[in-house]
Each structure stands twice: as structure tokens, then as C-alpha cells.
Design goal:
Oligomer: single chain
Structural class: mainly beta
Shape: globular
Number of helices: 0
Order of helices and strands: EEEEEEE
Strand order of the largest sheet: 1-6-3-4
Length: about 110
């Protein structure tokens, strides 16, 4: 469990871990404030090989919050070897202006 103090906004949660192929596939939960991101532990190729990947998105109201990473359920043996949990601020979405001139039947997605 960690205590953090972060500005309000949307954050992408990244985890770096290692796990044996036999132990992979078990469920985990990352709780940040009042939000919970769940998933399953992906294979890394072994306990000595670490992998980093995004696991979900959380929105923080700003200020103090608690974060916790744990198994999401009970099972024998280890969940994983956790090296890092990182919350990366996502930039606000700003609309891209449409090019000048008429553009019938065009949908701009940015």
C-alpha cells in the first residue's frame, strides 16, 4: 500500500512485474482511491524477466489518496514479483480544428 498526493486528472496505470509461466494468469487488483482496476497477470517468460504494461485508467480528484496492489482472490503460491506501479498523467483531450472548407460526410476522430 502506498500513500500519494497527486493533482486531479486522469492517469494511466502501468505495472512492471515478472512471473513464471506456470503462475501467470492469476487475477490482480489495483485500487487507487475509490477506483479499482482488475486484470490477469500476463506471462513474462520467467521470474528473472520483467515486463512493463498499462493495466487501466483511473481518475483522481486531487490531493491525498491511497494505492494498493494485490491478488484479486485467493489461490496458493505467489501472484508475481512486482517491481513498479506507475501512474502516468494523461493529457487532456483537446479537439482538433477541422480543415477549412466544406467536408460533407466526414467524421474527424482525434
Amino acid at each position: 500500500t502506498w500513500t500519494l498526493d497527486a493533482p486531479a486528472g486522469e492517469y494511466e496505470a502501468w505495472v512492471e512485474w515478472s512471473v513464471s509461466d506456470k503462475a501467470a494468469g492469476r487475477p490482480f487488483a489495483l485500487a487507487v482511491g475509490d477506483q479499482k482496476v482488475t486484470g490477469t497477470v500476463g506471462k513474462t517468460g520467467g521470474w528473472e524477466t520483467f515486463k512493463r504494461a498499462p493495466v487501466g485508467t483511473v481518475r483522481l480528484p486531487g490531493g491525498a489518496a491511497t494505492a494498493a496492489f494485490a491478488a484479486d482472490g485467493e489461490f496458493p503460491g505467489p501472484l508475481l514479483d512486482l517491481r513498479e506501479v506507475r501512474l502516468v498523467p494523461r493529457p487532456p483531450v483537446r479537439p482538433t480544428p477541422a480543415p477549412p472548407g466544406p467536408r460533407p460526410n466526414v467524421l474527424w476522430i482525434t
